[in-house]
């Protein structure tokens, strides 16, 4: 059952890591040049001059990958070493997760995590029920129940019977379908069908069940448990700049070959002309023909110019990535003090891509929300309760409530006036309202003596029952046909006559009870859209309640309407008889029961409405607003229900009330013929009914006409995983719905060679990416990854995925950047992530500050590294025209060796580490600055071309100004030798490069100044050391320029030449800077900078609520169908507890 998320082991690390590293074109290029240097006939530099730095580069990158992988090994070891109980012989023994094998029987206790995919055999609950929480798999917070087969429940009651169990399970091949399972159990000559309701999946957590036993069906990674099937494989991620650098290496190499070829051909012609004119020197070429000489010079020039692709750039780049990752780790603004969790850059090679994100794919549960439901407000009989300032009152009086259970801690209520009204007990509507909250639910209760512990199937139900308890209506116990509550200190037992179960279509649940006086009442709670349509009358109180619902919706609270009515004895008897008959039908049972439920749930009296807050993580709405202003689109992908996802969408301001919302069910209810080309998209949006649930197109059209037209970017689309499956299976939607708009959207959008499925994919992505927000609900982990992959494939966009659970792992691996939320129960998301944060809100600083800075720094670093390389070293090409095209180096070998390492590396390094165009505060105040990275403005092929031309120009000026000056320099003290000429050209190029970096550095620190100073000092120091007479005497073959710098730089004429070259090289840059400053910036970045300077106030403010033009329900309820049946059958009930009054 062992899992492995690490990429390497002891045997595979070296070959696999080298294989990955040599996927970089630069490394292949360097190896090619090193091989050329091994031939003495063409070598112009010793072979080890490139081998040593290449070895350093490979070792540094290898160590970085090794450190990252060691962390994954440690995380794997932590998970694989978790303890579990496995049946060994006739008893259970504690072993580790990795010891589990297929066919083992495992015992699980309450709150333990399921270690593998299991067939539930039995449990300590009645009828072998097992309650599980699947938040780490599908994001749903409500509890789900699984039930063992009756035969295993009855026969496997002891360890001895389990040891003797010899059943044979035949099941489907391992697959990634999380919600389905097909198999059979053959035991004792009989075959029993198995489905998903009998299976416990790896990663879910056992809740409210003391003990359960399961047979392992799928285990670990190698035997493909469903969650591991959904996790995907680890892929090496490369940034956009990495891909561009690979292509640029090819371009530069081709330019190098063309240049070398041209110079080599010229050398052949020159050699032939030289032999004809100077026959006395013809002996130099007696062993080679001009063609052979050209061939040898071609490779000589290739080696000589190979340093145009500097290896030191890659080594320095690795250091910059590492240090900038440390800056992320050390940022106290992303440190979560409550749990002592800092931000962590788990991958050090993706920092610049943080500044280019276009789409964020976020999980909901645990990422945007805290998984905490709290009863915030309510409306009873037209009166709204839930005003601020109640905490003080509760703190003073909460512990003295007369109905509070012995030993219970102080509990919160939502409003002091509501508490006082409940205590007075003089409002019959309020009394019925609170009684309904205590009676109409499927919660189980456990009395531990000192406190009552509620075991709810959903956090919503628990919040409502706790609210009733806080206000004096305490749910005490239930049996198969009764429920006992304490009403303001008085214990009352109600007979449960029927429970009308919740499901996603009904959007409500009801309970029929007989009170101690014999009166029969129906209590109903559900969505406002269904309850309000079933009221007996609409009066002033109902109107006030509807307004309250609107207000709650504006505050993005999860609402339910509650209602009741009295049922006569005769009506109940007639209805009950028909209900019993419908319950045993073999055909149309569900439809008949729904019809009876509908009949009973009529003529209701509205009692009020509840408002529950699904608490968001701190700062989520503000973060999403900032990201949207930075032109980043946020998509929410969740396994939760649509209503819950939409409610959170409004709460976090991903959805706004002025958006037009497209839902799949409403589109499918409005078939449109393909001929209506221009009207299709319009009909799409007109068919929306804003979550009212009716799907009535004409009604939707009227609502659409009553509200102002939304701008084109204020649209959102909400789809489900099933719908996603349809449109992503090749052509299935087109076959099923001939009038489907996808058909028209696909026409003419792709090449004829593309398959029908590809057309549908592209049409869907085009539609989704044209929306401001996308919410996908009820999606599997595999579908989450598929959504990310589709956007990457069809939009070539940079994507980021953020999540906290095992269900997010595949999505995190697939995205260009994966962010794991740490500090929660699951660790798998963090293990597979590139960056780990404690809160979603830290994402704004990670992207808008660190991401943008890193992109700016890396782009400037690359630009200047290429510039200084071209400016300093291309002079060797011009020198070839004056040295007979003989591949003779212009510069001293030490200058070539140290130019990119010491002389010019430090100023560029300081830019790569410290550069800022604006402060962190301004970056957050003006998120529009982020657009620069999305548009690749700072480093692209155009910028590279300009940099190349700039470098060529600098090298030409440095070379030919010096050559012109030296040609006219005569006299006994004139300096005109080759060595002095070389030093003068080198110094001119070096100073021009340093001045260029100084001019374009925006953020100066002491370190920046020291870096520039150090470059000049190191040039002087190494020049005089390597060119000293003593060094020449020791090794004349290595130190070939004795006193060259001293002779040249002590001559005022040479210094004037250097100054002239510097001025001529710098004037164009000064002119461009002045032009931009006077006329205004032409780029997006400069325009926003100008705005930032003129407007010092923050531009990011959350908008006040915009009144809605159409009705929107804020109903959301996390519940699973089937709990009412469990209660009425008695499957979920233990022995009844007794309570005194």
Walk me through the structure:
This protein has 1141 residues and is an alpha+beta fold. It has five domains: 1-80 and 235-287 and 294-309, no CATH class; 82-229, Calcium-transporting ATPase, cytoplasmic transduction domain A (Distorted Sandwich); 323-334 and 849-1079, no CATH class; 369-615 and 1117-1129, 3-Layer(aba) Sandwich (Calcium-transporting ATPase, cytoplasmic domain N); 660-771, no CATH class. It is built from 44 helices and 32 strands. The strands form six sheets. A nine-stranded mixed sheet has the order 13-32-31-30-14-26-29-28-27, with helices on both faces. Strands 16-15-25-24-23-22-21-20-19 form a nine-stranded antiparallel sheet, sandwiched between helices. Helix 10 packs parallel to helix 34 (905-914) and helix 37 (941-967) packs antiparallel against helix 38 (978-1000). The protein is elongated and about 130 Å long. Mean pLDDT is 80; it is low at 389-400, 406-411, 666-713, 730-754, 1096-1111 and 1135-1141.
Summarize the structure.
Helix content is 47%, strand content 16%.
CATH topology of the largest domain: Calcium-transporting ATPase, cytoplasmic domain N
Instruction: Give the helix tally.
Output: 44
Q: Characterize the main sheet.
A: 9 strands, mixed
What is the count of structural domains? 5
Shape: elongated
Overall pLDDT confidence: 80
What distance separates the N and C termini? 52 Å
Estimated radius of gyration = 37 Å
- Helix content estimate: 40-55%
Uncertain residue ranges = 389-400, 406-411, 666-713, 730-754, 1096-1111, 1135-1141
* CATH homology group of the largest domain: Calcium-transporting ATPase, cytoplasmic domain N
CATH class division of the largest domain: Alpha Beta
Count all strands and give the number.
32
Strand content: 15-25%
**CATH architecture classification of the largest domain:** 3-Layer(aba) Sandwich
Output the strand order for the largest sheet: 13-32-31-30-14-26-29-28-27
Backbone structural class: alpha+beta
